[in-house]
Design a protein that fits this description.
About 50% of the residues lie in helices and about 15% in strands. Strands 2-1-3-4-5 form a five-stranded parallel β-sheet, covered by helices on one side. Strands 6-7-8 form a three-stranded mixed β-sheet. The longest helix has 24 residues. It starts with a strand and ends in an 11-residue tail after the last helix. The C terminus is likely disordered.
Amino acid sequence: MKIFIVGLGLIGASYAEGLSKKHTIYAWNRTEQRVSDAINEGIVEVDNDLSKLNEADLVILGLYPKHNIAFVKDHKALFRAGQIVTDVSGTKQWMIPEIEKVLPAGISYTSHHPMAGKETSGYTAKDANIFIGANFIIVKGERSKPEDEMVLRSIAADLRFGRVIVVDAKTHDELVAFTSQLTHVLAISLVNADTFKETREATGDSYRDLTRIAKINAVMWSELFDENKTALLQQIKNFEKELDYVKDMIKNNDKKALIDYMEKATEKRKTFDANSDEKISYRI
């Protein structure tokens, strides 16, 4: 299959690295040097240029949501009927309808989200191994066709993803607000709440594990928070309610209720671990 990847950041470049073993890969990046680097490393075809977009069977948009929309608008003449378009963006509800509006007729579009990443970003951080065992979310919209899901499941298998689920854009953004965006909010808040000069010398695994993702791409995550503001604020509100409940139990010396609450969390976390692969070091 011929695949055109728009954007060679961490995810786009890692896709190119992993998919080039089985597919013909073309790519575009705002910084042309990154495309040259990818060609030199053998993960993008030597005869690569923007016109190859027209030859692709699958187009993967790997930019920030607003830049994905702009790219489609600016280059819609290069798309052709029969292509499948997808994207790897972290929020969907706002972006998907905007792309659906500007895509030429005869092109299907089904979004997806690879639930994998690193603390570092950009082309030089690429690593196709981050996808091994990770979750893969397919997000259907008005321009989706049944064959889109088949192709995306094939891509997920090629990159050695683990579980694949299919949801709508609203469900995706609510899920991601809880599983990804809220956890980043907690990590950065915890780090910034530190008032001790001895913290570095006093931490154990719990602090390190909870704050790992505070090493954050601030520009990207601030945009994701803004684009998914409604869902994220609701999840923050839900978490504040749980935190207040724990605070009240501690304040009131309600040891039994606290033990019950902890045991409930332990059992719930055990069900999460069942049949999961915990070997991967990096997750978003």
